[in-house]
Amino acid sequence: MCAGDPPGPRAVCGGGDAQGPRAVCGGGGLPGPRTYARGRRRARTRASGTGGRGPVASPGMTIDERVRTPARRKSDLLARLERETDIWVATADAHGVPCLVPLWFVWHEESFWLCTRGTNPTGRNLRDGGQTRLALGHTRDVVLVDGEVRAFSAGQVPVAAAEAFTAKTGWDPRTDSPAYAFYQVRPVAVQAWHEERELRGRHLMRDGAWIV
């Protein structure tokens, strides 16, 4: 766990190993299609006893074998951004020590808006590093977002963004504590895929522009 952050997985916040923000979420460490497929087939076999036939989804999630078009992936992504409240936030400090925590978010005017205490590791890393990688949801329904960060105090945050955050989460940090800060994450790259079969065509945004 990243000291001072909200509760979250401890294993992903160590230092010096392969669990850095980019390694945790893919990027340059993304497994090749063959390795990825073998691992998924073994996992399906163990979990379902089906001999590796067909995907296994978590309750409430449906994944079929059809490869989605890029337009469908973008549509699915935008629907998730409206529907979901929690997102994984990966950062690193000036020494490269990684940190990964879940935070509430709202998608507002083509940006993610997050909130956490400005003095905790994630808050400091977002402010000082100016970049993050975000991840949504299940490991078989992957969304990865690389973004540029801008920090705002509770008194500086645009009113419309703060109100959108409050409307979605039911929490207004501006009335809670002055220690809370808001963080705007403008996406510069977006990837989305269902398992190995959708690795091809997973890039939906490059250099801050949608390509589908």
UniProtKB/TrEMBL annotation:
Residues covered by region (Disordered): 1-61
Matches recorded under InterPro entries: Pyridox_Oxase_N, Split_barrel_FMN-bd
Transmembrane residue ranges: none
Pfam families with a match to the protein in the record: PNPOx_N (PF01243)
Domain Pyridoxamine 5'-phosphate oxidase N-terminal: 79-193
Superkingdom of the organism of origin: Bacteria
Protein name: Pyridoxamine 5'-phosphate oxidase N-terminal domain-containing protein
